[in-house]
């Protein structure tokens, strides 16, 4: 069995009396690509923000490599080997590419002075790795000058710099062109091939089905389905399940058990 | 009509490529401070043409250089506060308060050096209180620091009953020679202030703290998501402001060896004007220390320059405002805001 990298146990987040996430169990093993699906407002982004330490859960436990974490926050999450590519990319657009890549994680020499030369070398390497083909941009280019796909590239470069064990990507292909989307997929496969894990959140079920090997479907703050690719069988069955979750009366006869039956036939 | 299948990028790339070369890179990276320098040069050229007999003699520069160190100590840390996305209007009272502690310690017979350390600690403590109030209670820094300014100044007035403290003994002390008077024909405080500017520039541009100030001012949510303790960085800029204000307070007390209960009051608007004249925008995320320092130079010269140019004192405010507005327009045109 593969090592259990990260596990959320009964994690909940409420705003007043409204539950954004209500008691969710989720785990990611080493080297697997997990697809997290769900409608708008299902709680996906809240869940991954909890995982990233950007917001504190109301209750529940977070385990990294089997150990319960206390004082979980964004810095802890990154130290634990979890890098998150947020939906809004979490960039500072008036700053240079190099400053964004090393945001919160500056390479320094003595007294906290920046090791500018090393940061530039690393940034150039990462930009090549991500596939910044255009020579127009240097590590000193301002992120505000970049297109959406290129900004995504900066966010991805930042995520791989620290050789994180788990890269969480919140709707990384939204608003990207076809070629840029393909770049993101290539990125996920590269990460996967390196024995690292990816938690991939997406709206486009076909995209997620292609890239992930296990699926978690959320609905109104709860987990509605956890199944492997084999169990699900096809993207169409996944779509059918999700439509059923969203509008139960529409396809009343459908239940998760039928998925398993479908996979075994 | 023929259809070209050549990739668009290949056709446009040579033109789109920014010009290479260290000089071009330097210019584009420092456009704000170079713009400020241009404003200064033009302003001084106008003054020299208007009044050559005054501006070709050293005397006018000497009089500006006396108060410039005080202004520099205020403007430079204020750039940090503005770049992090806040504003501090409480520094005049912090300056007065720290200098008061300095004066009291000297009066009580402590070594002036110890008194300076006491003043710096007071300034940083007050800065911390202001910062913690603004950040943890998430108050508007504009209003909260305005309130703090009144409150601290009021406290000084209540306790001292408006009486000043003379420290004439300092004149002959080692501290007096080290922090007052002239050195090679320049006010000695100028050297200390330039050292402080250089230190702040290093902190702002080459240090992890400066990098995080930029990130927090640019996009606090992003900075927080990347593991930066946003509140700590914000408070730290207020602490640094307190340090600068304390330094300014000690310097201004050392000029005439007298502490006034109003010490610092006159610096509020000129210091703020200097930051923005210097090319630091109001919205946070970017700023320039060099620009701020030149901005302080510009603001210091406006007043003496206009009077020296033969215009009556009634013109001072008008030209003060005109130069601020022109400088802002220039920076707006010179800098693009990225969102």
Question: Which features would summarize this protein structure in a list?
Answer:
heterodimer, A: 265 residues, alpha/beta, Rossmann fold, 2 domains, six-stranded mixed β-sheet, four-stranded antiparallel β-sheet, 10 strands, 36% helix, globular, B: 339 residues, mainly alpha, ABC transporter involved in vitamin B12 uptake, BtuC, two-stranded antiparallel sheet, 16 helices, disordered N terminus
Span from first to last CA of chain B? 40 Å
Report helical residue fraction of chain B. over 70%
Distance between the termini of chain A: 26 Å
Q: Please, how many helices of chain B? A: 16
Just give the CATH class of the largest domain in chain A.
Answer: Alpha Beta
What CATH architecture of the largest domain in chain A would you give? 3-Layer(aba) Sandwich
**Series of secondary-structure elements of chain A, N-terminal to C-terminal:** EEEHEEHEHHHEHEHEEHHH
Oligomer: heterodimer
Q: Total number of helical segments of chain A? A: 10
Q: What's the total number of strands of chain A? A: 10
Task: Please state the overall shape of chain A, judged from the principal axes of the Cα atoms.
Answer: globular
Radius of gyration of chain B: 22 Å
Radius of gyration of chain A: 19 Å
Strand content of chain A: 15-25%
- Average pLDDT number of chain A: 84
Most extensive chain-chain interface:
A-B, 42 and 32 residues
CATH hierarchy, class of chain B: Mainly Alpha
Describe the structure.
- The complex is a heterodimer of chains A (265) and B (339).
- Chain A contains ten helices and ten strands.
- Chain A has helices spanning 44-51, 74-79, 97-101, 116-130, 148-161, 178-193, 205-211, 229-232, 235-246, 256-264; strands at 4-15, 18-29, 33-38, 59-64, 67-68, 82-85, 166-170, 197-201, 214-219, 222-228.
- Chain A has two domains: 4-81 and 166-264, Rossmann fold (3-Layer(aba) Sandwich), CATH 3.40.50.300; 93-163, no CATH class.
- In chain A, strand 7, helix 6 and strand 8 (197-201) form a beta-alpha-beta unit.
- The longest helix of chain A is centred in the last third of the chain and has 16 residues, at 178-193.
- Residues 250-254 and 261-265 of chain A have low confidence and may be disordered.
- With 265 residues, chain A is of the alpha/beta class.
- Chain A starts with a strand and ends with a helix.
- With 339 residues, chain B is mainly alpha-helical.
- Chain B has a single domain (35-331), classed as ABC transporter involved in vitamin B12 uptake, BtuC.
- Helix content of chain B is 73%, strand content 2%.
- Chain B is built from 16 helices and four strands.
- Chain B has a two-stranded antiparallel ribbon. Chain B has a two-stranded antiparallel sheet with strand order 2-3.
- The longest helix of chain B has 27 residues, at 230-256.
- The radius of gyration of chain B is 22 Å and the shape is globular.
- The two termini of chain B are 40 Å apart.
- Chain A binds chain B through residues 49, 52-54, 73-79, 84, 86, 88-95, 99, 102-106, 108, 111-114, 116, 134-136, 140, 142-145, 158, and chain B through 9, 13, 16-18, 25, 29, 202, 206-209, 211-212, 214-215, 218-219, 221-229, 285-286, 337-339.
């Amino acid at each position: 069995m593969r090592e259990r990298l990260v596990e959320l146990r009964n994690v909940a987040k409420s705003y007043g009396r409204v539950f954004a996430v209500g008691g969710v169990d989720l785990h990611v093993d080493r080297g697997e690509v997990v697809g997290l699906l769900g409608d708008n407002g299902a709680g996906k982004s809240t869940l991954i923000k909890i995982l990233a330490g950007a917001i504190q859960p109301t209750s529940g436990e977070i385990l990294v490599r089997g150990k319960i974490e206390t004082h979980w926050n964004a810095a802890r999450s990154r130290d634990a080997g979890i890098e998150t590519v947020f939906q809004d990319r979490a960039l500072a657009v008036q700053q240079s590419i190099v400053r964004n890549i090393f945001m919160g994680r500056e390479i320094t020499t003595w007294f906290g002075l920046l090791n500018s030369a090393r940061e530039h070398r690393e940034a150039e390497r990462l930009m090549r790795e991500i596939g910044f083909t255009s020579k127009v941009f240097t590590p000193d280019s301002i992120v505000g000058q970049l297109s959406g796909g290129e900004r995504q590239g900066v966010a991805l470069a930042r995520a791989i710099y620290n050789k994180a064990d788990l890269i969480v990507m919140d709707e990384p292909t939204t608003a990207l062109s076809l070629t840029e989307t393909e770049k993101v997929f290539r990125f996920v496969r590269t990460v996967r091939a390196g024995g690292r894990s990816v938690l991939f959140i997406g709206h486009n079920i076909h995209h997620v089905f292609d890239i992930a090997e296990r699926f978690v479907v959320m609905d109104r703050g709860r987990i509605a389905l956890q199944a492997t690719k084999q169990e699900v069988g096809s993207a169409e069955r996944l779509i059918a399940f999700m439509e059923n979750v969203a509008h139960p009366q529409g396809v009343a006869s459908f239940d998760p058990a039928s998925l398993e039956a479908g996979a075994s036939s | 009509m023929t259809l070209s299948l050549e990739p668009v990028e290949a056709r446009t790339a040579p033109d789109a490529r920014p010009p290479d070369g260290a000089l071009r890179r330097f210019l584009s990276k420092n456009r704000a401070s170079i713009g400020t320098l241009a404003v200064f040069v033009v302003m001084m050229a106008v003054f020299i043409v208007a009044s050559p007999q005054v501006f070709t003699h050293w005397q006018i520069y000497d009089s500006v250089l006396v108060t410039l160190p005080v202004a520099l100590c205020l403007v430079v840390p204020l750039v940090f506060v503005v770049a992090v996305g806040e504003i501090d209007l409480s520094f005049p009272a912090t300056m007065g308060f720290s200098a008061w502690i300095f004066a009291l310690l000297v009066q009580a017979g402590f070594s002036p050096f110890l008194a300076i350390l006491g003043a710096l600690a007071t300034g940083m403590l007050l800065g911390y209180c202001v910062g913690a109030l603004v950040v943890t209670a998430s108050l508007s820094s504009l209003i909260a620091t305005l309130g703090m300014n009144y409150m601290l100044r009021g406290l000084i007035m209540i306790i001292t009953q408006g009486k000043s403290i003379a420290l004439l003994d300092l004149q002959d002390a080692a501290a007096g020679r080290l922090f007052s008077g002239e050195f090679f024909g320049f006010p000695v405080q100028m050297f200390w202030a330039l050292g402080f500017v250089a230190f702040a520039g290093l902190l702002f541009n080459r240090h992890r703290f400066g990098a995080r100030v930029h990130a927090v001012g640019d996009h606090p949510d992003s900075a927080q998501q990347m593991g930066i303790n946003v509140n700590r960085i914000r408070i730290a800029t207020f602490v640094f402001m307190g340090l600068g204000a304390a330094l300014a307070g000690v310097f201004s007390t050392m000029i005439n060896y007298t502490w006034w209960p109003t010490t610092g009051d006159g610096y509020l608007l000129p210091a703020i004007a200097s930051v923005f004249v210097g090319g630091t925008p109001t919205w946070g995320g970017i700023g320039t220390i060099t620009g701020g320092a030149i901005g302080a130079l510009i603001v210091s010269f406006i007043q003496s320059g206009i009077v020296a140019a033969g215009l009556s004192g009634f013109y001072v405010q008008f030209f003060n405002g005109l130069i601020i507005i022109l400088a802002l327009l220039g920076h707006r045109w010179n800098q693009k805001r990225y969102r």
